[in-house]
Amino acid sequence: MAALAADGGGGVLNRKSRRAAISIAILLIIWEIYGSFGRLYGPEGATPPPIPPASDVFVTWYHLLFDADYWKSWYLSGLRVLSGFGLAVLLGIPLGLLMAISRPFYGIAFPPFEVFRPIPPLAWVPIAIIFWPTQELSITFVTFLGAFTTIVINVLGGARSIDARYFLAGRSMGATRWDLFRRLIVPGTIPSIAVGAEVGMGITWSVVVAAEMISGGGRSLSGTGGGLGYFVWNSYVGGQFPHIIVGMFSIGIAGYAASAAIRKLGEVLTPWLSTR
User: Fold this and answer.
1) What's residue 38's pLDDT?
2) Do the Cβ atoms of 56 and 242 come closer than 8 Å?
3) Rounded distance between C-alpha atoms, residue 98 and residue 208, angstroms
4) DSSP state of 176
5) Under 8 Å between Cβ of 222 and 72
6) DSSP per position, 43-96
7) Which residues of the chain form beta strands (DSSP E)?
8) What is the rounded CA–CA span in Å between residue 59 and residue 146?
9) CATH classification of 54-275 is 1.10.3720.10, yes or no?
């Protein structure tokens, strides 16, 4: 039975892989035809389509793999994301837990938090540039805001969604407040923390790219490389359309990899959910 189950799972995985490969191949073919249409059939000297052919993009990408500035952009954006996201996790999880377990603290902290929460992180860019002494700190601060509110809300919601009967059962068996916190609230909130962190990571990548475009990517500090957001913007200014798409794909790959790593960590920390 175990072997059959394994074969069945492998068969489903193979079918999904084939479908994914077919869909990607069809998309690439359509993209190549559309990008090449104006070049092949348009009048001589006509403006080509805004989207270059897939072949041009992948040739450009291949050459960029040997460009140090391209990888420096990856490094700078990744460093900013890790800095802002790490700070959001360090501050957001304790804040959410404190608001969940303390009604007085919730009454003090939640109203101002709820006022600032709807403000888009990018709206803070002008203030961040003025307030912080360097562009690098400004970008990190805006990136931090992108994940902070999402993590806090998920932690707070996860802690409040724990069934009250568990608390009553724990108290009836003599559990202290500290016992309830470390044995019930924290484990019960980990799934929500994982979801909030995964969503926050996606927002963080979106924010850091936009912040790099607006602020110039901190060029004065980092030399020629200014992050993937600045890479896309600089390619647009220079009219290098294949570079723009390479930058977009690079951002998507980086965001997917970061979210997948957090998702995997969440599965490791919540093994009881995988048995459902």
Assistant:
1) 58
2) yes
3) 28
4) -
5) yes
6) PTTPPPPSSPPHHHHHHHHHHHTT-HHHHHHHHHHHHHHHHHHHHHHHHHHHHH
7) none
8) 34
9) yes
Kindly report the pTM of this predicted structure.
Answer: 0.80
How far CA 266 is from CA of 151, 260, 261, 272, 273, in Å, comes to 14, 10, 9, 11, 10
Contacts 24+ apart (CB under 8 A), 50-53: 50/241, 51/241, 51/245, 52/241, 52/242, 52/245
Question: Within its chain, how far is the Cα of 124 from the centroid?
Answer: 19
pLDDT at 18 over 90: no
User: Rounded to an integer, what distance in angstroms lies between the CA atom of residue 67 and that of residue 265?
Assistant: 32
With a cut of 60, say whether residue 46 has pLDDT above it.
Answer: no
Question: What is the residue extent of each domain of the chain?
Answer: 1-51, 54-275
pLDDT value, residue 175: 75
Residue that the structure tokens 């309830």 belong to: 180
Rounded to an integer, what distance in angstroms lies between the CA atom of residue 274 and that of residue 14?
A: 21
Contacts of 93 (CB under 8 A, 6+ apart): 151, 155, 193
Rounded to whole angstroms, the Cα distance separating 96 from 148 reads 10
Read off the amino acid at residue 205.
W
Q: What is the pLDDT of residues 134-162, one digit of tens each?
A: 888 888 899 999 899 999 999 998 888 88
d(CA 250, CA 257): 11
